[in-house]
Amino acid sequence: MHVEGDALQTAVLRDGCLDEFFMERSGGGSLVGNVYKGRVVNVLPGMEAAFVDIGLGKNAFLYIDDMLHPHADKQPKQKPAVAEIARPGQELVVQVVKDPLGGKGARVTTHFNLAGRWLVYMPSAGYVGISKRIDSEAERERLRLLGEQLRLEDEGIIMRTAAEGEGEESLDGDVGKLRELWRAVEGRAAEVKAPALLHCEAGLMHRVVRDSLMLDIDELWIDSPSRFDEASKLLSDMTPKLKERLRLYESEGRGGLFQSFGVSAQIEEAFSKRIPMNNGGYLIWEETEALTVIDVNTGKYTGTNNLEDTVFRTNLEAAALIARLLRVRDVGGIIIIDFIDMQQEDSKSKILTKMIDEVRRDGTKCTIVGWTKLGLMELTRKKARENAISQMGEVCKTCGQSS
């Protein structure tokens, strides 16, 4: 973690390779997870949605699906008209699921969830879910049974990947803290007038410690004494086992933290328009407001005497690189990949399988739609927050990109 002025930058390295990158400025962090008491401003039957004033510059957008019961089995068979559920002037509690981006206001929901270290607490979902990244069926069943024991009445629980192998005491402690927090939110909602902030989601430091630090981490380096103390307290509370792996980086005579670990050069390369591959090929990366387009090229790579094999190997490396860069750049929305044309259906099938396997490591929901009729690969990735580069507000000294 690197602190520069009012910005906290976090880079996750796996085997020395940049795997994720986050940035947040003090006072300018994400609103995702915040809970507000809002007031319905107007209802849009044609869009099956309502605009809600939550006290920000732009009204928030609330879809009808986000007003119905969070458990699909408990929703009405016939979806009601939005005017039957929401009316102008109505006060309701909502949670931000997507930051205001561009000219759009925040997207909100009434499907509340509060994230803990091991699990996600949902006050009224009425079911237990298990992270798809937990593969063991025996462990999934153990966690499901534990979740059923821990939840009360209509509560819902999602066991996070970090819950794998954790005991009942840890999980019960998480549920207790989150249940208490939700009751405090309800209490405040009953006392204040809309619009009002009821709960503020944790900042980047807290989220990184809570969401990204697993027991397989070797070291956590921070170059700010005050941030080091903050992380130390968070680890003591959430994951004491990891506290001994926390390190304070002192730059005197060694250069900056990101320079020392080779992060700066990797960020510059990752956010470039032309991104080289190890085999001599390269990607051309274009991002627009509507979608991201990635073009794969063989470049200097000539491979063997077999053209199909050369193309396949280039595409195979590109698939792994693209999946990683989607995390690093935190790309959201529609993504189109123009892989080099392959003649054999078996080759195309293997590239599709490779992409599916690679995006499974992504903490953000990423859906592989498949090959289009034009031979392009289409996928979508959930976008909730502004990515690191767009928050900089000026040309980045490291990568040359601007917001």
UniProtKB/TrEMBL annotation:
Q: Which GO terms describe its molecular function?
A: hydrolase activity; metal ion binding; RNA binding; RNA nuclease activity
From its record, what is one biological process in GO terms? rRNA processing
Q: Which domain of life is it from?
A: Bacteria
**What taxonomic ancestry is recorded?**
Bacteria, Bacillati, Bacillota, Bacilli, Bacillales
Would you tell me the Gene Ontology cellular component terms? Answer: cytoplasm
Needs which cofactor?
Mg(2+)
**Pfam families in the record, alphabetically?**
RNase_E_G
Organism of this sequence? Paenibacillus paeoniae
Q: Which protein are we looking at?
A: Ribonuclease E/G
Q: Which residues form the S1 motif domain?
A: 33-98
Task: Name the UniProt key words of this record, in alphabetical order.
Answer: Hydrolase, Magnesium, Metal-binding, RNA-binding
InterPro entries, A to Z: NA-bd_OB-fold, RNA-bd_AU-1/RNase_E/G, RNase_E/G, S1_domain
